[in-house]
Write a structure and sequence with these properties.
Blueprint: E1 13-14, H1 15-26, E2 37-39, E3 45-48, H2 57-64, E4 71-74, H3 85-98, E5 103-106
Parallel strand pairs: 1-5
Antiparallel strand pairs: 2-3, 4-5
Helix pairs in contact: 1-3
Length: 108
């Protein structure tokens, strides 16, 4: 006789909470690592520094993972193959802080 399936719980880390933690650990925003844009309290750009390169780790992540609203992703060492120095610094910090085989829940 078959057993009726039961609901189960899966554990994830919230990507955005982890992103905020990484920002604090590194001392800069991983979505604007060079500080090209100064944002007001609403997140609107109020200053633009033309001399700085725009570096956004989120763009690197979505190029290397299938990311959509309400999905889970892994941030692990295979990303290091695709990254350059600044991208790998952020990836390594995620791995160091949260582990290698951790699933992150992404929603917006």
């Amino acid at each position: 006789m078959r057993i009726k399936p039961e609901p189960f719980t899966k554990q994830y880390l919230d990507y955005h909470e982890c992103e905020a933690w990484i920002n604090a650990r590194l001392g800069y925003s991983i979505n604007d690592t060079q500080g090209k844009f100064m944002l007001d309290s609403y997140g609107t750009a109020i200053k633009h520094d033309q001399t700085k390169e725009y570096r956004n780790w989120w763009h690197f992540l979505v190029e290397n993972r299938e990311v959509s609203n309400g999905c889970s992703i892994y941030i692990d060492s295979d990303l290091l193959i695709s990254g350059n120095e600044w991208q790998n610094e952020i990836t390594k910090t995620f791995i160091k802080e949260f582990g290698e085989k951790i699933e992150y829940y992404v929603s917006w």
